[in-house]
Design brief:
Layout: E1 12-15, H1 19-30, E2 35-39, H2 45-49, H3 52-75, H4 86-111, E3 114-117, E4 119-122, E5 127-131, E6 141-145, E7 149-152, E8 156-158, E9 171-173, E10 186-190, H5 194-205, E11 209-214, H6 225-237, E12 241-244, E13 247-254, E14 257-263, E15 269-274, E16 276-279, E17 283-285, E18 320-322, H7 335-349, E19 364-366, E20 371-376, H8 379-384, E21 389-395, H9 400-405, E22 410-416, E23 422-429, H10 436-444, H11 449-453, H12 463-473
Parallel strand pairs: 1-2, 1-7, 2-3, 7-18, 9-16, 10-11, 10-16, 11-12
Antiparallel strand pairs: 4-5, 5-6, 8-17, 13-14, 14-15, 19-20, 20-23, 21-22, 22-23
Helix pairs in contact: 1-4, 1-7, 3-4, 3-5
Length: 481
């Protein structure tokens, strides 16, 4: 049975209620468009319920544990962690997620966005059939037609490895790692990108023996090589066994864990036994069952839906747009990039001139300990694109606040040679996720080192290391020449 509610022809249909989807819906509704958002699970998507928010909540708890250890070992504060009440930790995490979820629902309701619960399948270029369990008073099928635009925002799922089916206990993905029972005493993390590094860091803070395996020749391989080097040094200093240039040969499930064979960069075969194997080898776009062919859409060989017009994020089918993890690079698969994509699509559909997303100016952060934060081009990328560059670096321990923190780290700036525009800024160290906003503006506004050097950074702060590097590049260095 099909419901005829009289409201099944909105201006905009958004399929998927994650960060890209709900930001599109909110902005479109704010511009006066009638919007229906279809979501089969909970609005907020992976980021809110299984990724960004719960993981950062847990990483904050890990920082508190690390702080107690630092207080004891560096500052003479005789404090210890007797134990971690896993139930209490989880309850706080879940409360944070629940309050954020209620907030998103309230924003959508206030904006007048109609939320339809169920699984969507495209039946045409701008038509969607939504199926749900339904009730006696509200049968489970709705046919919707978008008058102006259909926006696809169905997100992504963790990639898995053949023969390593996640069971939620011994083998877990990044989606369910935080929801596995208890704290393991040992963890093998496969994948040294941002997600793998964060989970390795969390479990080490909680006392686990951690081995981190990355197939590329360095961890966080998409970042500047100096970022990888400093992060590796920081993780190893904390006791994490970092194995870059290594690969998993095979893994055997045990009653209470796994036994894996790993080929190291030196060609040696090592056996690693751990209570938990965490697979963090990337994410894949979710299009299964979506019925793309009915709308005249296809995916590339990696499963992404490629826009015909990146300035509008519109596909080859007019009126069908894509946001979030369905997009291939240069989109970044980051929640804050999805917000920007949602704004762009909503404003485009409403007939406004909206600037395309400048992906080079979108910050990238790894919330491990130490943290990394970058924006713009790496040194290698800048040179590969034909830029003559000047590079300025400074260890955070060269400023007083960096000595106070005692975690090492660095600032690296890549700029056009001869005082030209800043191409990239790269940070490693404590709290650098909160420092990257300044550099985002520097790169996004095509600033030059001399533009930044005229502004005064507070002393003593970690950020003055950023200011010092720009002073040096502008020929005005105080503590560097």
């Amino acid at each position: 049975m099909t419901i005829d509610t009289g409201i099944n022809t909105p201006d905009v249909i958004v399929v998927g209620g994650g960060t890209g989807g709900y930001s599109t819906a909110l902005r479109a509704a704010g511009l006066g468009l009638d919007v229906t958002l279809v979501e089969r699970d909970k609005v907020g998507g992976t980021c809110l319920h299984r990724g960004c928010i719960p993981s950062k909540a847990m990483l904050h708890a890990a920082e508190l544990v690390d702080g107690i250890a630092e207080a004891r070992e560096r500052w003479g504060v005789k404090a210890t962690v007797d134990s971690v009440d896993w139930g209490a930790l989880v309850a706080t995490r879940d409360d944070i997620v629940a309050r954020n979820h209620k907030g998103v629902e309230a924003h959508l309701a206030h904006a007048g966005v109609r939320v339809v619960r169920g699984s969507a399948r495209l039946t045409g270029a701008r038509t969607v059939r939504v199926e749900s369990a339904g009730t006696e008073s509200a049968p489970g099928v709705q046919d919707l037609t978008a008058r102006r635009a259909l926006v696809l925002a169905t997100g992504s799922r963790p990639r898995t490895l053949p023969g390593l089916d996640p069971d939620g206990r011994r083998v877990v993905t990044s989606d369910d790692a935080l929801f596995a029972p208890g704290l393991p005493a040992s963890v093998l993390v496969l994948g040294g990108g941002a997600i793998g590094a964060e989970y390795a860091s969390f479990h080490r803070s909680m006392g686990a023996e951690v081995t981190l395996v990355e197939a590329a020749d360095r961890i966080v391989p998409l970042e500047d090589a100096d970022v990888s080097r400093h992060l590796t040094r920081g993780l190893k200093k904390r006791g994490i066994d970092v194995q870059a240039g290594a690969r998993l040969l095979d893994a055997e499930l045990l009653e209470n864990g796994v036994r894996a064979r790993v080929r190291t960069a030196r060609g040696e075969t090592r056996t690693v036994t751990a209570e938990r194997l965490l697979v963090a080898v990337g994410r894949a776009p979710v299009t299964e069952g979506l019925g793309l062919d009915a709308a005249g859409l296809t995916t590339d060989e990696r499963g992404f839906v490629v826009p015909e017009d990146w300035g509008r994020l519109e596909t080859a089918v007019p009126g069908v747009h894509v946001v979030g993890d369905l997009l291939p690079p240069p989109s970044l698969g980051l929640a804050h990039a999805s917000f920007a994509e949602g704004l762009l699509v909503a404003e485009t559909v409403a007939g406004l001139e909206s600037p395309p997303v400048d992906y080079a100016a979108v910050p990238r952060v790894t919330y491990s300990s130490p943290q990394t934060a970058s924006v713009g081009l790496s040194e290698a990328e800048a040179r590969a694109r034909g830029h003559e560059v000047d590079v300025g670096t400074m260890p955070l321990t060269a400023v007083a606040k960096g000595m106070v923190h005692g975690q090492g780290g660095m600032v690296k700036v890549v700029a056009e040679a001869g005082g030209g525009q800043v191409l990239g800024v790269h940070l490693v160290g404590p709290n650098v996720s909160e420092m990257i906003a300044e550099s985002q503006l520097i790169v996004g506004w095509d600033a030059e080192p001399s533009d930044v050097a005229r502004h005064v950074h507070a002393h003593p702060t970690l950020s003055e290391a950023v200011g010092e590097v720009f002073l040096t590049l502008a020929g005005r260095g105080l503590h560097q020449q």
